[in-house]
Amino acid sequence: MRMNHITIGLFLPFLLAACASGGNPVASLKASHVHGLAVDRGDSNRVYLATHDGLFTVQNDTDLQRVGSSRDDFMGFSPHPSDPNILFSSGHPKGGGNIGFQRSEDKGERWKKISNGNPAGPADFHAMMVHPANPNHMYGWYKLRVHRSLDGGETWTVLPKQPPEVLSFAGDPRNENVVYIGTIGDLLMSTDKGESWTSMTSVFANDVVFDVEVDASTGDLFLATRDSGIERVSRGSEGGTIVEVMGKLPDGDVPQHLALDPKNPQIMYAFGKSHTLYKSTDGGKTWQKIL
What we know:
Blueprint lengths: L2 E5 L7 E5 L5 E6 L3 E6 L6 E6 L2 E6 L3 E5 L5 E7 L7 E6 L8 E4 L7 E4 L11 E4 L7 E5 L2 E5 L7 E2 L7 E6 L7 E5 L2 E5 L7 E2 L9 E6 L6 E5 L3 E7 L5 E7 L7 E7 L2 E9 L4 E4 L7 E2 L2
Antiparallel strand pairs: 1-7, 2-3, 4-5, 5-6, 6-7, 8-9, 9-10, 10-11, 12-13, 13-14, 14-15, 16-17, 17-18, 18-19, 20-21, 21-22, 22-23, 24-25, 25-26, 26-27
């Protein structure tokens, strides 16, 4: 895969522009416009950052690399749950308008539009998920409505019962019917592919759940929240839901995106409101600024 790259000391409120060793320019990366975070399924040393100005990776916690030539605004981003070569995205083309729903089969080097993502015209999914238990099931948030596809993104429907504003989606890796969403003030769960939603706990009544990730080995949820930092939600031995505060980012930073390493969920990354990328190697208890 061809990538332009620069090495950075990642405290990212700045616009970064440089030239790779081959002389090709690297476009500006606006860190304040990072919209998504994911660990490469095939390479745990590679983390994707979906941004306002295209797709980047951070390799070995040191190198920031642009993927491909696209400068589109990747508002929605989700990797395939098992094939590391396949990625999905939505958002805005550089020239304006909406992308709809698109797919890459070469780790983001090139993109192909699959569908509009919305029956009335191209969508701009600000939150998006490919379900880990069934990669043909897709969910997107557009114009205050949850959209769903059950055929790999070819056709989409707007679900009849709508939750509050969706900030993030997650799915149970063991059950294609179960979907989670983080919202402003709640963590919701559906057991019928998004047809209906119920609150999982009252703990988040005054909090914001920016992002939700699932540990595939245990089914536990990890949340990036405004007030409590990183939290874990698990099922108790006698039923009910247990919510634990795992840890907080340094200097009071607020985690807005979260990503678990699929091969080792003790390793996770968080992107903070201060435009800083962090890494934890102990399940979210302690965090270090990387690079």
